[in-house]
Amino acid sequence: LLVNQESFRGVADRFGMSKGTLHHAFLQFVNGFINLMPKYICWSLSDQFPELAGGFQRNTGFPGVIGCIDRTHIPVRGPSEHRDSFINIKGHASFHPQAVCDSNLKCTNIFTGYVGSVHDACVYRNSDLKKYFDSNPLPVEFHLLDDAAYPLDAAMITPFRDNGHLSETQRRFNTSHSSTHVHIEKAFGLLKCKLRRLHHLDMTLVHRIPSVIASACILHTFVLINESLDDEYQHAIDEVPCQRENPHNTEDESGLARRRIAEEG
Questions:
Q1: Contact 97, 69 (CB under 8 A)
Q2: For residue range 98-116, what is the model confidence (pLDDT) as tens digits?
């Protein structure tokens, strides 16, 4: 049911069962994968940081990156009551999950509870990951890459805002940042390519949607751990634009000294 967009009724008819029985089986499947989350999606221990950073540096040359973070919108029907809270910036009802991926596009952290109207920075500020970083600061040589919608802080490096007056060094930094941060965009693209139900979750049990999204992320990571990408999916993620101007340039100096230690504060 996650891999296509066929209706519950159509799948139920195909297997000779009632729609209610299929729905119950689907939710059991979701609960089963949620129970597997600690095995497949868990934040890495500090002794794994060098290996994670090495993967990104081999791919793009950006040093010290242990993950790329971003959000994506999962379209939903949305409830009739309080529907406005589900409407995202594009005018559609959605949930707004956040994820971190490694250099192999596997999820290493997910946070799925917020609806489309919530600002990106608010999603991060209220996430378990932010609370973890508040109590467990990253070593200064390691960091996540985020986009301009996130706040620049001690754990995460954002690109320089292009006000038309960036220096050559800042522009080169942004290019290198973009060619590395694109990993999370490719991870989301692959997730939705493999699990096409996420193109629109037409569910009336709105409170179960975060669990369905989380189970899809777990399944995505499980597949990447156990299988290589076939040509169809490789082509799909290659379609994501990727700026790669001199990708092995190492003048980033550990994220321009971690964006000058989060812009001095």
A1: no
A2: 999 999 999 999 999 899 9
Measured in whole angstroms, how far is the alpha carbon of residue 120 from the centre of its chain?
12
Measuring CA to CA, how many Å separate 149 from each of 99, 157, 159? Answer: 14, 11, 10
Q: How far is CA 153 from CA 35, 63, 214, 256, 260, in A?
A: 32, 17, 26, 14, 11
Which neighbouring-strand residues pair with 186?
none
**d(C-alpha 228, C-alpha 42), whole Å:** 21
For residue 101, give every residue at least 6 positions away whose Cβ sits within 8 Å of its Cβ, in sequence order, or none: 67, 68, 107, 108, 183, 184, 187
Kindly report, residue by residue over 195-246, the tens digit of the pLDDT. Answer: 998 999 888 889 999 999 999 999 999 999 887 665 555 555 566 554 433 3
Average pLDDT over the chain, rounded to an integer = 85
Q: Is 259 a residue whose pLDDT tops 90?
A: no
Q: b/e string for 89-98 if b means 16 or more Cβ within 10 A?
A: eeeebbbbbb
> What tokens appear for 198 in the block?
């996420």
Quick one: the chain helix, strand, coil %, rounded to 5?
50, 10, 40
One-letter identity of residue 151: P
pLDDT of 66-77, one tens digit each? 999 999 999 998
Question: Distance between CA 87 and CA 72 in Å, rounded?
Answer: 14
Contact 165, 52 (CB under 8 A): no
Query: In b/e form, how buried is each residue of 130-149, taking b as 16+ CB within 10 angstroms?
Result: beebeeeebeeebbbbbbee
